[in-house]
Amino acid sequence: MTNTTITDTGTAAAGGTAEAGRIAVYAAPAPRAPLERTTVPRRALGARDILIDVRYAGICHSDIHQVGDDWAPGIFPMVPGHEIAGVVAEVGPEVSRWSVGDRVGVGCFVDSCRECDNCRAGLQQYCTGEGGVVFTYNARGRDGAPTYGGYARQLVVDEQYALRIPDALALDTAAPLLCAGITLYSPLTHWGAGPGRKVAVVGLGGLGHLGVKIARAKGAEVTVLSRSLRKREDGLRLGAHDYRATSDPATFTELAGRFDLVVNTVSAGLDLSAYVGLLRTGGTMVQLGAPDGPVGVNAHALLTGRRSLAGSMIGGLPETQEMLDFCAEHGIGAEIELIRADRINEAYERVLRGDVRYRFVIDASTI
Ligand code: NAP
Ligand code: ZN
User: Fold this and answer.
1) CA distance linking residue 243 with residue 227, whole number of Å
2) Signed CA dihedral, 279, 202, 266, 80: sign only
3) Which pLDDT belongs to residue 19?
């Protein structure tokens, strides 16, 4: 393991109380490079900022996409991590929502314009204002400095962009809820997963396994569509009523026209036509996976059943809090494999091989 120090290029926010400093992180120095321990600048605590002692950070497949420059050229060094659970360690003088010791989470974004229609509606993830939503890492804040994510010992964030983690949730299994959990909760809510509705979850990984738990807790009839039956026992234990292999052509004939809603969490590009054919008339297929290339669909698969193809990205602040409260009420956390930070690169390899049950979570005290 190498220990390098990255030159401070960030501009600290003005008006802070705490000294700007440096924080220990795991960062990718360049696209596709292994992550290594280093330090990055931490902005001074602004009047409405909180300093969070990060306890746990989930490894989302989006971290791997971004370190791999799959979507667009990234900002390096990159400190991934947007499934963050920790404890408030310090508050700025005008902070009103939090006290030292509060259990908080931070998800995929740390700022937005706060004025556009979407921000006012609590849909900050779809901010259309100037500069748009500021993602937790691999982005630039309104001060122009790069944002650094949760594979870190600490994080400074505006108090409005932190969420309350209910006491009923353990911090380690709650961390993945901040991205994977809300990414499933939002479309399942929007498209009405509930009693009397049949929902299929495609891909049983980090997102998918929480989709199964949440859809089941909402009262829907849940089917997992996985490449093989290898994880069938797990799927049923997580709450699925049925579990089918997409490698078996019979799955697509037997389940044709069955579902009200299909949510696709697959990280790779798929031809969606066969999956769209599983929808009943008027049903909706929601694309959640974010592969680098296009996802295709045969027009006939859509038009023969007035079916819809939709997409959904994470969730806004109010809905993320609602999701955390829902998970606390229903005893839902992620199934995790807790790892030391020096195993991050190995964990990435395992996620890419599909060898994850069902979320790697980094113990931030090992950074
Ligand atoms: P993950 O844990 O790796 O799970 C992805 C699952 O997809 C795998 O477990 C596997 O399920 C299936 N899969 C993988 N490769 C496949 C292939 N070539 N063909 C068919 N199935 C394949 O990843 P994740 O963290 O859940 O993230 C999934 C995707 O969602 C990523 O692209 C990520 O960037 C994206 N994402 C989107 C949002 C959003 O807001 N929309 C938020 C977070 C993440 P089986 O083994 O069961 O087949
Ligand atoms: Zn994510």
Assistant:
1) 10
2) positive
3) 67
Distance of CA 301 to the CA centre of its chain: 29
User: pLDDT for 4-40, tens place per residue?
Assistant: 333 333 333 333 445 689 999 999 999 999 999 999 9
Q: Which ligand is nearest to the CA of 312?
A: 1
Beta bridge partners of residue 37, listed in sequence order: 26
End-to-end Cα separation, the chain, in angstroms: 12
- Cβ partners under 8 Å of residue 13, min gap 6: 43, 44, 46, 49, 143
120: CB partners within 8 A, 6+ apart: none
Integer Cα distance of 108 and 242 in angstroms = 31
- pTM of full prediction above 0.85: yes
Ligand 1 neighbours (beta carbon < 6 A): 60-62, 65, 179-180, 183, 203-208, 226-227, 265-268, 288-291, 312-314, 351, 354, 356
Domain spanning 180-311, CATH architecture? 3-Layer(aba) Sandwich (3.40)
- The helix/strand/coil state of 21 is strand
Q: Compute the distance between CA of residue 88 and CA of residue 54 in angstroms, rounded to an integer.
A: 9
**Cα separation of 73 and 83, whole Å?**
22
Report which DSSP code applies to 145.
Answer: P
Spell out the residues 6+ positions from residue 148 whose beta carbon is closer than 8 angstroms to its own.
23, 25, 27, 40, 79, 137, 155
How far apart, in whole angstroms, are the C-alpha atoms of residue 123 and residue 318?
8
Q: Which ligand is nearest to the CA of 61?
A: 1
Residue 296: how many other CB atoms lie within 10 Å: 10
Q: What is the mean pLDDT of residues 31-57?
A: 97
9/365 Cα distance (integer angstroms): 26
What are the residue ranges spanned by the domains of the chain? 11-178+333-366, 180-311
CATH architecture of the domain with range 11-178+333-366 = Alpha-Beta Complex (3.90)
